[in-house]
Amino acid sequence: MDSVKLMMEEHQNILRMLEVVRNACYGIYKGEDICYEDFAKMIDFIRNYADNHHHGKEEKLLFNRMVEHLGPVGTKLITHGMMVEHDFGRLYIRELEEALEEVKKGDDTRIIDVIANAVGYTNLLKRHIQKEDTVVYSFATRQLSKEIIDQVNQETADFEAEADKNGTRTHYLDILEELEKKYSK
Ligand SMILES: [Fe+2]
Ligand SMILES: [Fe+2]
């Protein structure tokens, strides 16, 4: 299994969900009611597909090797770059969830925090994905030895087999399609 190719395909699915989130926020901006159930699904996708499933592979299978084998450039790019951005993403989503709860309880002023955190997350992740697609992944495939790349690919195949047992991919792609129908431009 080509790990990098798979992760670039996952980026395309994540980008589709980012559009859903932006469209949902535009609806709120125009005065539509917040659908809490749909936001819960978006957050579920972001936490479990984008973060656990996708960032999980990056962090546990690829980025760890880059830090280990690619010297100061690897450390700078990964530890001080990509990993920090993964953490910022988690913070945005936590704050989005808090703001949604406050609005649900009746505090309308927190609507701006719903939009700010959701849109902030989409902008962060779009830039992050672009950096990985154009710089980080190609740096990894150029600089890591064939032996290590083979190992990453094998571990990715094992990771995917395990995820398939739980139906992770199908489940989240179904959520994506369902929400896309509702939140298209
Ligand atoms: Fe990443
Ligand atoms: Fe990524």
Can you offer a commentary on this structure?
The chain has a single domain, classed as Four Helix Bundle (Hemerythrin (Met), subunit A). Helices cover about 90% and strands about 0% of the residues. The chain has helices at about 5-30, 35-70, 70-105, 110-145, 145-165, 170-180. With about 180 residues, the chain is mainly alpha-helical. The model has no long low-confidence stretch (mean pLDDT about 100).
Key words describing this protein structure:
about 180 residues, mainly alpha, Four Helix Bundle (Hemerythrin (Met), subunit A), elongated, binds fe (ii) ion
Q: How many H/I helices?
A: 6
Predict the CATH topology.
Answer: Four Helix Bundle (Hemerythrin (Met), subunit A)
Number of domains: 1
CATH architecture: Up-down Bundle
> What's the β-strand tally?
0
CATH class: Mainly Alpha
Order of helices and strands: HHHHHH
Mean pLDDT: 98
Globally, the shape reads: elongated
Q: Mind summarizing the main beta sheet?
A: none
Beta-strand portion reads under 5%
Question: What would a concise description of this structure say?
Answer:
The chain has 185 residues and is an all-alpha fold.
